[in-house]
TrEMBL record:
Listed Pfam families: HIT
Coiled coil (UniProt feature): none
GO molecular function per UniProt: catalytic activity
Motif interval(s): Histidine triad motif: 100-104
Domain of life: Bacteria
Catalytic residues in the record: 102 (tele-amp-histidine intermediate)
Domain HIT stretches: 7-116
Protein's UniProt name: Histidine triad (HIT) protein
UniProt source species: Saccharopolyspora rectivirgula
Length: 121
């Protein structure tokens, strides 16, 4: 994927609109366009890494910052106490569709078990 095809870089550059809930020099957070829970936010590093493992190997501090940002957003959304789920999808079987690492923050209701999705056909 070239950077010009990278949806998240285009959102960071304000070429594509998004509901931005947090931004600093290194990280941006946006509401997911197809929310899977009452709160569904994507925490995205501005620098592109393909997945969480690539990010962790290159910049573990940034990975930690993403978790801290997610918790701050959970507090803003009023779901830090009731609970939330943080999730990285990696590659096809996990359903990763955008190969610029992003941390899903989900909450606002009982989220159920981890493997509730349909069996892959
Ligand atoms: P993945 O499946 O790669 O882990 O997650 C990609 C996420 O990006 C999906 O939850 C999807 O709904 C979200 N998404 C895809 N296109 C857009 C968009 O244009 N704007 C926003 N805000 N989210 C998007």
């Amino acid at each position: 994927m070239s950077d010009s095809d990278n949806l998240f870089l285009r959102i960071i550059d304000r070429e594509i609109p998004a509901d931005i809930v947090f931004e600093n020099e290194r990280v941006i957070a946006i509401r997911d366009i197809n929310p899977q829970a009452p709160t569904h936010v994507l925490v995205i590093p501005k620098k592109r890494y393909r997945n969480a493992a690539e990010l962790a190997a290159a910049d573990a501090q940034l990975l930690g910052e993403m978790v801290t940002v997610a918790h701050q957003i959970a507090e803003q959304e009023g779901i830090a106490e009731s609970g939330y789920r943080l999730l990285f999808n990696t590659n096809q079987d996990a359903g990763q569709t955008i190969f610029h690492v992003h941390l899903h923050l989900l909450g606002g209701e009982w989220l159920g078990g981890l493997t509730g999705g349909p069996i892959k056909g």
